[in-house]
Design brief:
The complex is a heterodimer of chains A (about 475) and B (about 300). Chain A has about 475 residues and is mainly α. Chain A has 18 helices and four strands. Chain A folds into two domains: about 10-120, no CATH class; about 155-455, no CATH class. The longest helix of chain A has 27 residues, at about 365-390. Chain A starts with 11 loop residues before the first helix and ends in a 24-residue tail after the last helix. In chain B, the strands form two sheets. A two-stranded antiparallel sheet of chain B has the order 1-4. Chain B has a two-stranded antiparallel ribbon with strand order 2-3. In chain B, β2 and β3 (about 145-150) form a beta hairpin. Chain B is globular, with a radius of gyration of 19 Å. The chains are: A mainly alpha (about 475), B mainly alpha (about 300). At the A-B interface, α1, β1, β2, α9 and α16 of A face α2, α3, α4, β1 and α9 of B.
Chain lengths: ~475, ~300
């Protein structure tokens, strides 16, 4: 039952029975959720059915699995035709709903491509050609990789002045950069020190709320609050980290998750300080060396456009925010790159690999981990301050567990410890879904599926680096850097 | 005194539900050494399937209620178990031997996926069900305050004890249980003596999911209010229970569940209902700090 798809094809009969089992399981899975749903009735709820969808999914599962199975054997061409037929049926709208049709087209195309590739290769040794596809792509990418970082950097620098860039893209870029910064901050904790933190959003929240409260009560500006918020977040990191850093792996993950949730619950319920679920609004926007981005500045001050003699445009503020987060993110990156070469950073990398060996050579694991936790938290706090200043509004809703999960996913998907990987993963996980905002409802499903798929495809992340930053003695020629 | 007794009853009921979910965490952790992050969603799926089944059976007379619940239990356990099997197959099996973090992330991905799948197909609105089992005993009455023990609460505790007994027997007496214990100790060695490790792990997920479905059914019947988001908090609390009792130990999971349930009931009864989740998380932290192996767990020896 349900053999791996990489195994050589069996007989036709075997493939059919295999596909039947698969379709049966798919039907069992789909029945309670796609087959039926509840609608409000006069007294409580009543059931409604979506039978056509259920039947379509069962059929699709059968045909899709059969197609994939056949595509490995001598019937590859047949499988390709089958895939084409399924995609065509989805395309012309014979299926009961749009979702099922999209699914059918995608599945049909996958079967078509696999079948066609196999048929084109003829009766080549099964398994011999498996190195093409994804692996070749990865090889090519690896060769281009050294240039990718500088290219992305240059693009990021000139992005606001590119001709096709509009407000929407710039807002999206700011969002992606915020996550890049958070990812780089968390990378210190997870990627370098190897501590699994599922509550990173707590520090983001501490940063945002520190700024919001300081601005609200003491009327302090962004630039005065930025270092303070980072400090608070770092203090929180030490406070939270001190008791829990003795724990290992999964336990640490759950405890940090608990802390993240606790902070959120406190933010929701401590209404006298945080205004509860309604949040704090009216947070001041950052200024450019004292120059505000307003059309009508306060009497006696100048605003940005007056000082530089420009026509007023709201875009100036967005561009400024863009460069602000770019600089903040690059500072995080630079800091990480440098500290990796210092004894502290080397201790983190060593600790990640083997804690017992570290103890044996006299590294204090608790202090070293605390430093990672605090520094990671500090950058989270900076990002939080920026978030509050950009939104001019904070509420506990922005700091749910899902944010922590997204940030962690960015780090792990990118390849733990890889700075460039974080950028790529942030583009993949934030940029692409956000760009397809129209697909609102399907966004998070696709997000979850992408997390699973990337992990299965590349369990070590898109760009895996686990090499120590510094080696003893001379590096061997040809060794990966 | 009356209030205390009432909270005690409520706490034990709640604890039984947490205990049922916690068994799933503890079994999976025992056998593959990983937190099944999507287990909370499996419980949520179980609750939805139970709701659907009860609605599909339709209104029944007083005599057939037991039969209806048994049928709903059976259907929910079977279909939820399929989800548990699918979860292992999709998110865990391809990643066996991969870094532990990879499996955790794929499980988080699965959790997000399942949550949104249910939201999309069933709607985001809270589902309410008329109570199927109403009534109960009044144990004592004092100054107008009644201590009541509802039939539903009895049902939950009895079902938990029964399932717990069955599962303990399965694990101590059957070939499957022996295989599970063998895989827990050393999966390579177990494979060498002819145990199908993949199959054993899959069955562990299936068993955990079936128990989570029972918890889902109980919650649907007891509270009558479910939505697509219930899995998250319940999952964390049940995990806390599993850790509290000593992860890897099934009696420990039930014990931990009961304690968490009692603490939550008393906390919301005597202190503040808003911070009841904080209480559960604080306990998790305290337990991990002072007794990381839990109440009934064996100490983990760290080897080089």
């Amino acid at each position: 039952m349900a053999r791996p798809l990489s195994a050589p094809a069996g007989t036709l009969r075997r493939e059919v029975s295999d596909a039947l089992v698969f379709a049966l399981i798919a039907t069992a899975l789909a029945l309670p959720f796609i087959g039926i749903y509840t609608v409000p009735a006069t007294a409580g709820l009543r059931l409604a059915t979506r039978l056509p969808d259920l039947v379509a999914i069962a059929g699709l599962a059968f045909v899709g699995r059969l197609g994939l199975g056949l595509a490995r054997g001598p019937w590859a061409a047949g499988a390709a035709v089958l895939g084409l037929a399924v995609a065509a049926i989805g395309w012309v709208g014979l299926l009961p709903s749009r979702e099922v049709a999209v699914f059918a087209i995608a599945a049909g195309l996958v079967v078509l491509i696999r079948g066609a590739m196999r048929a084109a290769r003829g009766s080549a040794e099964p398994g011999a050609g498996r190195r093409t596809g994804a692996d070749a792509l990865a090889d090519g990418a690896a060769r281009l990789l050294p240039y990718l970082g500088p290219v992305l950097f240059v693009v990021a620098l000139v992005l606001p002045f590119l001709p096709f860039v509009d407000r929407r893209l710039l807002d999206l870029a700011i969002l992606v950069l915020t996550y890049v910064m958070l990812g780089w901050g968390l990378n210190i904790v997870v990627g370098l020190a190897g501590l699994l933190d599922l509550g990173y959003v707590a520090f983001y929240a501490v940063g945002a709320y520190s700024f919001a409260l300081l601005a609200l009560h003491f009327d302090w500006g962004f630039w005065a609050c930025l270092p303070l918020a980072g400090l608070f977040a770092a203090l929180f990191g030490i406070l939270l980290g001190f008791p829990v850093l003795r724990l290992r792996g999964d336990y640490l993950a759950i405890v940090t998750l608990g802390f993240g949730e606790m902070i959120r619950i406190v933010l929701v319920n401590w209404t006298s300080l945080t205004n509860g679920p309604n949040g704090i609004s009216g947070i001041p926007r950052p200024s450019f060396f004292g120059l505000e981005f307003t059309r009508e500045p306060q009497p006696g001050t100048q605003s940005f456009h007056q000082f530089f003699g420009l026509e007023f445009s709201t875009l100036h503020r967005v561009i400024f925010l863009y460069y602000l987060i770019l600089v903040l993110a690059l500072v995080t990156n630079f800091f990480t790159l440098r500290i990796r070469r210092l004894p502290l950073g080397r201790a983190w990398e060593a600790l990640r690999e083997d804690e017992i060996a570290c103890r044996a050579i006299g590294i204090n694991p608790t202090n070293t981990k605390l430093a990672a936790f605090a520094i990671g938290a500090m950058f989270g706090g900076f990002a939080g301050t920026f978030f509050a200043a950009r939104q001019t509004f904070v509420s506990p809703e922005s700091f749910t567990f899902i944010e922590s999960a997204i940030i962690l996913a960015i780090v792990v998907l990118g390849g733990m410890g890889s700075q460039l990987g974080v950028v790529l993963a942030a583009l993949l996980l934030i940029g692409i879904p956000e760009w397809f905002r129209e697909l609102q409802d399907y966004r998070m499903i696709a997000f979850g599926a992408a997390m699973v798929a990337v992990m299965i495809w590349r369990p070590r992340g898109l760009l895996a680096v686990r090499e120590p930053t510094i080696r003893l003695g001379r590096r061997r020629r040809g060794a990966p850097s | 005194m009356e209030y205390f007794l009432q909270q005690l009853i409520n706490g034990i009921t709640l604890g039984a539900i947490y205990g049922l979910i916690a068994i799933g965490y503890t079994m999976v952790y025992g056998i593959i050494g990983m937190i099944n992050f999507a287990h909370g969603e499996i419980y949520m799926i179980g609750a939805f399937i139970a709701l659907g089944t009860i609605l599909a059976i339709g209104p029944v007379g007083a005599g057939a209620v037991v039969l209806a619940i048994l049928l709903a239990l059976l259907v929910a356990m079977m279909l939820t178990a399929t989800y548990g099997w699918m979860l292992e197959r999709v998110a865990y099996r391809p990643l066996r031997g991969a870094p532990r973090l990879a499996a955790l992330i794929s499980a988080i991905g699965m959790s997000i996926l399942l949550q949104n799948y249910v939201q999309l197909t069933q709607g985001a609105r809270v589902k309410t069900l008329q109570p199927l089992v109403a009534g109960g005993f009044t144990l004592m009455e004092h100054d107008g305050f009644e201590v009541s023990l509802s039939y539903m609460q009895i049902l939950i505790v009895v079902a938990t004890i029964a399932l717990m007994t069955i599962f303990t027997l399965v694990i101590t007496r059957t070939a499957l249980g022996r295989a599970q214990r063998a895989c827990e100790q050393d999966s390579t060695m177990a494979a060498l003596v002819g145990i199908n490790v993949d199959r054993t792990i899959a069955l562990t997920f299936v068993m955990g999911a079936a128990l989570a479905a029972v918890a889902g059914l109980m919650v649907t019947l007891y509270y009558g209010v479910i939505d697509f988001f219930i899995g998250f908090v319940a999952g964390i609390k049940a995990f806390t229970a599993a850790v509290f009792g000593g992860i890897g130990s099934i009696p420990g999971a039930i014990l931990g569940g009961l304690l968490i349930g009692l603490i939550e009931a008393f906390w919301s009864g005597y202190f503040s209902i808003e911070y009841k989740d904080v209480a559960a998380f604080s306990i998790l932290v305290l337990v991990l700090l002072f007794r990381p192996t839990g109440l009934l767990g064996r100490p983990e020896v760290e080897k080089v």
